[in-house]
What we know:
Blueprint: E1 2-13, E2 19-27, E3 32-36, H1 53-68, E4 72-73, H2 76-83, H3 90-104, E5 117-124, E6 137-142, H4 145-161, H5 181-192, E7 198-201, H6 215-221, E8 224-228, H7 236-245, E9 250-253, H8 261-270, E10 275-278, H9 286-298, E11 302-306, H10 316-324, E12 328-332, H11 337-351
Parallel strand pairs: 5-12, 7-8, 8-9, 9-10, 10-11, 11-12
Antiparallel strand pairs: 1-2, 1-4, 2-3, 5-6, 6-7
Amino acid sequence: MIKIASLAAREIFDSQGGKTIEAELFLADGKSGRASVPAGISTGQWEARKVSADQAVRETQGIIYPVISKREFIGQEDFDKELENFPCGANATLAVSLAFSRAASTLSYPQELVFPKLMVLLFEGAKHGSKNLTIQEFLYIAETVEQGQEAYQKIKDYLRNSNYPTTVGAEGGFSPPGLNDEQVLEIITKVLGKNSRIALDIAESSRENQPPLDYERLVKDFPIISLEDPCLDDDWDSWIRLTASLPDTMIVVDDLTATNAERIKKAAELKAGNAAVIKPDQRSTLTRVLEAVKVAKNCGLKTVVSHRGQDTNDPFAADFAVAIGADYVKFGGFARGERIAKYNRLLELKNA
């Protein structure tokens, strides 16, 4: 049995200068765990309900702690079941759930670690960066952290030598003015080679008043192997048609499913996508996130563990991705401390 000794919560700043919650949970045996919860700049309508940071802190201290204090729990599922009874924001319950997991070491690694491939952010636009770019993220598929960092640096050197600014957007991707979507794809292909593998996060639901993209032509003209959120998050028919028309391309659901086990199952059954983004903060507890992972894997979908636009220095996403055997991770560009923290955690696990 795992006995709770105490629980603390506080407000901290996220990567956009906003506020979020950090929880720290202490067990009777002296062990403790700390966790913070990120949030998205562009969010899907099916994500779990969050509250403001100050309200999340009040709910943690005033609603959750008085009930769980001095209680004993069998494990993560038992603890999370109790959390789900509280009328609290998902950011409050998830912070406590993850803190419990760390304190009680409920998330274990497989005996032989298999590390995910990386979707390394090179350029970003739309709500995350330059408005000249209608596509939200342009990513490079790397086998290792070192390979990803090298690709990122090559793009940076090219931009600097071509007199483009190398300032970055919300998640560490370059965001120079004056370049459009296709020019960025041409630069990536030129610098990293025609055999490079590119992933795009279209974020179609955020492409307001933009003409539709010709995905079949883009995949033909550029080495694109993955399209995330290429359709609106309530347009099941378009998802089904696109998945059928591009059988050799990863069609990645995010806003459509929002780490929800039932929606992931529906997408798999309808063949609306063949890969699923897993964002822990989209659900209310670690147990609910693991349910989504289990459904995705059982349905044969690839899994992509992702950070968020408003993130923190907490490297939980890296630990989680390795623990569940994720196929891919999205941690942003090789810039900004909250993104580097996750890459460094992957290196730490690899060299342990």
